[in-house]
């Protein structure tokens, strides 16, 4: 008799598992359908997008008359005025952040400055490679420059900018001595604490 009561429990457990699996699949299907309905139902094909771009360029050049844009509700809207960005040669900027913070005593003060320092350049990757190779010497230069400034010197944005420019000059001078070329254009502070 004990064997007869155990078999229906197993079937009931199997039915529950199958119910959970099919319920989960059903929920996933409903979620995907709702997502497609809300977000993916009206996507333009690539050829439609290209045609719109060509038409817009022709309108901007004056070869086609301006048309009123139609909103989603079907109401006409006046054409948008779009200001184009001027084309200019832009160079890629590469950044490097020194690990940890620099802590230096300030001149004629009991306070000290703690900063996180990063550098940037628009020259090739060799400049950043030189910075990575000579980190120890460059850290010493950065600390030396920071200790030359007083508490009053670094007050405000102008003071921080002056400190950053002095650090960039010192880094470039050290890189020129070690590698023959500096190349660091800017020093950036990732943290700046005066204590």
Descriptive labels:
195 residues, alpha+beta, Tetrahydropterin Synthase, Chain A, 2 domains, two-stranded antiparallel ribbon, 5 helices, 6 strands, 16% strand
Written overview of the protein:
By secondary structure, this protein is an alpha+beta fold. The protein has 2 domains: 2-69, no CATH class; 94-194, Tetrahydropterin Synthase, Chain A (2-Layer Sandwich). The protein is 52% helix and 16% strand. The protein contains 5 helices and 6 strands. Strands 3, 4, 5 and 6 form a 4-stranded antiparallel β-sheet that branches. Strands 1-2 form a two-stranded antiparallel ribbon. Strand 1 and strand 2 (76-77) form a beta hairpin. Helix 4 (135-147) runs antiparallel to helix 5 (156-179).
CATH architectural designation of the largest domain: 2-Layer Sandwich
What is the CATH topology of the largest domain?
Tetrahydropterin Synthase, Chain A
| Average pLDDT reading | 82
Which structural class do the helices and strands define? alpha+beta
Helix content: 40-55%
Number of E-state strands: 6
Count of discrete alpha- or pi-helical segments spanning 4 or more residues: 5
């Amino acid at each position: 008799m004990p064997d007869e009561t155990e078999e229906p429990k197993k079937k009931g457990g199997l039915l529950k598992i199958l119910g959970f699996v099919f319920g989960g699949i059903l929920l996933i299907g409903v979620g995907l359908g709702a997502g497609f309905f809300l977000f993916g139902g009206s996507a333009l094909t690539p050829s439609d997008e290209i045609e719109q771009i060509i038409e817009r360029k022709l309108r901007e050049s004056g070869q086609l008359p301006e048309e009123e844009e139609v909103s989603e509700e079907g109401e006409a809207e006046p054409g948008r005025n779009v200001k184009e960005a001027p084309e200019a040669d832009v160079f890629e900027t590469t950044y490097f952040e020194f690990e940890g913070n620099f802590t230096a005593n300030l001149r004629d003060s009991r306070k000290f400055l703690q900063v996180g320092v990063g550098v940037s350049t628009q020259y090739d990757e060799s400049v950043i490679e030189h910075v990575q190779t000579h980190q120890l010497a460059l850290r010493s230069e950065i600390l030396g420059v920071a200790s030359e400034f007083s508490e009053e010197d670094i007050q405000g944005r102008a003071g921080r900018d002056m400190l950053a420019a002095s650090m960039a000059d010192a880094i470039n001078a050290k890189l020129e001595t070690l590698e023959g070329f500096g190349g660091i254009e800017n020093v950036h502070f990732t943290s700046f604490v005066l204590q």
